[in-house]
């Protein structure tokens, strides 16, 4: 029949699920009832010598008083825990829910890009793995979570780099796995900012997926490893020390309890995955202390997703065409842009190369024009833009990223520009179809493909951060607004606009300048780099993290009392007098040199220190392979993608004057050999037909 099981343990677990024990005529058989459970009575033999006759007798006793009985013959306490979990958490139904959520996410992406969907992994760096080529962060996470013991995984990437897409892919892989016996719970915090405490955010998510399960019970199964907790957009819960009324608040007092709520969850066999944008918050002292405390209690894996691999998205053939047209996609490696390019046929792609800055604008127009047909929406693409620009501005003004359908409807209804556009649209319906109402048009707008209905709730948001940032940036330019815009919305707008043409980026940069005056240096630096491609100001008394700078961007601006965390520097000749009392922590330097004194700068856990090359430092020597070093300027170590084009002046940066002839000779040799081509404006281009050979030369 069954093995002998500790009866007290059985009672303990059933009681935990709010079962009540019902007395039976023998101690060898226990019975439990639960008013909400599918089967009214669970009959559980706990002794190996229980006979079929004894079981049938107990069942008949309960059936006579109208109970439905289910006999559970367990062989171990672990089997009891698994059975109760799968019963209460609706194992099959919940996995179907997760699968449907993934499929809905895919369909929404298809509606945006107008093409088939496939998940394309990016290169990543972790504590244990570094990859130049396109690797698979999802596959790596799957390996990590199958190891025994508690585990915390931090996945970092800028906005728009595919963190949410990767997490949906991860959920789908988990439920499709034959070796992972767990349910993934994906909590998207950027859609749940209104809830003030993380504990209640989790409770809200537990109720959304499991329908009425108690918080303590759900956490217990997270700690057992039955539920894999994935918190997407963890940084959305982080409160900075800036408040909208201009008063400073103590972010430590707000954020530290949040961190330790997570630490309390990570016990036994818990698997917790947090995704976050790269933020200076991770360098706060209290975060580091929390992180170090966690390291003593569980395995921690920190993963940084890198730029999308252009070759994986577009293929070698199209990159060669881009180079022939002098288009450098290194500067616009945004997943939305790459998806738009990927869906084009060859003729459309070649046409797009003639105006690379307009690719995104045409993509947005296609998106809006398709909606006029799909919903019979009598509003042209230009006016649709104005409506969603106004909505994005409302989101920023109200500090929200989603709201109920009713609230969104009222935001559009009461916007002055939107009211006029809808009024004009009413006339078009009357002239062609016998009329429409304002409510009917508003209904179409709230069902628009640029908006996203969250799961089975009534909350609506923009379908992607890229579109949110694009519409917000366009509205900022349109209004040339003087109002304060929070940093996270500036971050969204500049990230989206970084994929546009130089003229559009300059317009947004100019429009943001009055607003940036009230913000700290880091967001100003990020804005300069994304929209102008270089540092435009001296930097003093601040912390900067996760920057990737080369000689053209850095240009030796004054840096005084700056803390650089997890930054990369490529081919920079640092001028000592311009770098004053700075700390470089966990930074990487490739092809750099230091000219002059250190002046109390400190280098902690870096791969290079200036004392190795104080003074000019010999960049080229007798054993130096000049051809290799020149090619490495196009594909610096530490970057997953190559730069197709380089200015001649940048290839000489950091080279002592007496060795300039060596570089000139190397450039001439590379052009003659066909590895590089030379064009007007003193530009040098990689020959993409020889990319495999170039990779071999520089060891990629």
Could you describe the 3D structure shown?
The protein is an alpha/beta fold and 700 residues long. It has 5 domains: 7-75, Trna Endonuclease, Chain: A, domain 1 (3-Layer(aba) Sandwich), CATH 3.40.1350.10; 91-305, P-loop containing nucleotide triphosphate hydrolases (Rossmann fold, 3-Layer(aba) Sandwich), CATH 3.40.50.300; 310-354, no CATH class; 366-533, no CATH class; 626-698, Arc Repressor Mutant, subunit A, CATH 1.10.10. The chain contains 28 helices and 26 strands. The strands form 7 sheets. Strands 5-10-6-9-8-7 form a 6-stranded mixed β-sheet, sandwiched between helices. Strands 14, 16, 19, 20 and 23 form a 5-stranded parallel β-sheet that branches. A hairpin with a 3-residue loop joins β25 (676-679) and β26 (683-686). Mean pLDDT is 80; it is low at 130-134, 240-250 and 613-624.
